[in-house]
Amino acid sequence: MRALAWHGKHDVRMDNVPDPEIVNPRDCIIKVTSTAICGSDLHLYDHVIPTMQSGDVLGHEFMGEVVEVGPKSTLQKGQRVVVPFTIACGGCYHCNKHQYSCCPNGLPADNQDIARSAYGQEMSGLFGYSHMTGGYQGGQAEYVRVPFSDVGPIVIPDGVDDDKVLFLSDILPTGWQAAEYAQIEPGDTVAVWGCGPVGLFAVQSAFLMGAERVIAIDHYPHRLDLAAKFGAERLNFKETDVYDALMQMTGGIGPDAVIDCVGLESHGLAFDNIVDRVKQATFLGTDRIHALRQAILACRKGGRVSMPAVYGGFVDKFPLGAFMEKGLTLKTGQTHVQHYMPALLNAILEEKIDTTFMISHRMPLEQAPDGYKMFSEQQNEVTKIVLKPGMAA
Amino acid sequence: MSDQQTDDAPLASSRRSDAPAELRETVAGGEGSTMSGRSVTINRPPAEVFAFFRDFSNLSQVMENVERIEVLDRTRSHWVVKAPAGRTVEWDSTVTHEEQDRLIEWAADKNAGIANSGRVEFEAVAGRGTVVTLTTLYDPPASTVGKVIAKMFQREPAIQARRDLNRLKQFLETGEVATAAVNRQQHEEDA
User: Fold this and answer.
1) What are the chain A neighbours of B158 within 8 Å (beta carbons)?
2) What separation in angstroms does the CA of A260 have from each of A200, A216, A217, A355?
3) Using alpha carbons only, how large is chain B's radius of gyration in Å?
4) Environment class of residue A204 by beta-carbon count within 10 Å: exposed (0-12), middle (13-18) or buried (19+)?
5) Distance between CA atoms of A146 and B48, rounded to whole angstroms?
């Protein structure tokens, strides 16, 4: 089959790879109908996530039609499903607590050593996201083997477009969880750093959870305009001092909750970020956290910090003093996708949440390498690329 | 460093040089100068985990380098372990002490060519299932067989024990052992 494979920094190609088969009893095979490039795929594209191997098939946002089922799968051939990017068994201690992204049962034991050393414990397996998360083949392909298909994938009713539900796989639950972790109270002002897809869903979710005001921070005017469509106020850090603006906009108090949707490749021209960039480029292994530093300094005393953004390693100059002295709370983590999928599917079907607004480009899977280049280089215009296997060029 | 353990830590996590000797005294038939201890929590009752473990022929499903384990009688078993170049190494092992649903102690017979003994304990924990604690004693590899055993343990018995315990957990909790293999052929090559 055809699949998008990683071969190194800024080198992804369409390769011929072996077709997947049922391996374990609870597996299914899906024929991919839609798959998206995630902002976190760009971290792989930029090679700032370790444990990648040449030939790894990428993609963790995907959906499709069930074409084969293992003896313990509860799905039926022909059903349309969206697949959560976190591979979770549904029956362990963590899954019972709905901490699906902490499930260790989908991560091959040999791959657990890396996370054990780096993080103290292993995390869940993920599709198409390095060998530390299992080395699973991803969904930017014609077919995918899906483990634990009896508990993971969610069945989509007939007649609902792929584009409306595809983002249940990752970014919609991730944005929703980010807003939930901000513990929004009525009347709150919430500031969101980064208006990529997760940030835009966090903006939408924050309003649905009762935020009075949402302030969106980015440097891409088009992305800020999308946030404004949902009622957010815009701050462009290229032309505005973000801290000063936030203080003036909140009566000197600061936002009640701040959400970092930027992550380890934070942009910004401040001195701390330039030092971080040098260290990252020379593989000293520090993540760039300029946005997070700014968010912590701006957050009101006793406020909440929510961090859906992806970090992989260590950080420098984390403002721990400000964090402690102001009595902040931080909540973060990979998304417990399975926990949110059913309610968010209903919200989509009831048209309470719009997901299609952020899709800027649809293209055939065969053009995926061009898609990565575009997404990486034109972040103002390119907000989300959906790849469709078999679509006419 | 004091020559007596003064805290409540598991003996196998001690840094004291005489800790392995003390541990050896607690394992029936215990032999081996190096120790490792690992535990895993399995969301199943102790009776079920014990029963699976006690039928040693099951363990080749979760132990990476074990080709098969033949049960000879109630206490003795024959272990066939993969070696480089398609070879295998074999030895007999004896259960030296056991308590139903609670613990099993074993020691390899002298024919193993290298000391290898230990204890596995099963403890019920409310709401979480069973904590399985595996404590092993072994000699560092010197002989040919020792090198094979080192390979079996990937040079670091503690890591191998953790991997094997995690596979045990996966199998008992989900009915399968996680693999990223895309097809059956790749799965067999990985095995």
Assistant:
1) none
2) 12, 11, 10, 20
3) 17
4) buried
5) 28
ipTM value for the complex: 0.89
Mean pLDDT along residues A95-100: 97
Q: Which residues of A touch B (CB under 8 A)?
A: 17-26, 72, 87, 89, 91-93, 96, 104-113, 116, 122, 125, 134-137, 145, 147-148
Q: If you count DSSP H runs as helices and E runs as strands, how many of each does chain B have, helices first?
A: 5, 7
Tens-digit pLDDT profile for residues A206-256 = 999 999 999 999 999 999 999 999 999 999 999 999 999 999 999 999 999
Rounded CA gap, B148 and A291, in Å?
A: 51
Element containing residue A295 per DSSP (H, E): helix A290-298
pTM: 0.91
CATH 3.30.530.20 fits B15-190, yes or no: yes
Q: From the candidates B176, B177, B189, which should be mutated to test the interface with A, based on the most A CB atoms within 10 A?
A: B176
Q: How far apart are CA A44 and CA A281, in angstroms?
A: 14
Supply the CATH number for residue A220's domain. 3.40.50.720
Q: Taken in order A27, A32, A36, A40, is the CA torsion positive or negative?
A: positive
How many domains is chain A built from?
2
Q: Indicate whether A221 and A280 sit together in one domain.
A: yes
Quick one: DSSP state of residue B141? P
**Chain A contact set for B64 (CB, 8 A):** 109-110
| 3-class SS of residue A145 | strand
Instruction: Print the domain residue range for A63.
Output: 2-170+335-388
B162 chain-A contacts, CB cut-off 8 A: 109, 112-113, 116
**8 A C-beta contact, residue A267 and residue A238:** no
Structure tokens at A22: 């049922």
CA dist A347 and A353 (Å) reads: 6
Report H helices in A46-168. Answer: 93-96, 112-119, 162-165
List, in order, residues 6 or more apart from A223 with CB less than 8 Å away: A195, A196, A199, A200, A379, A380, A383
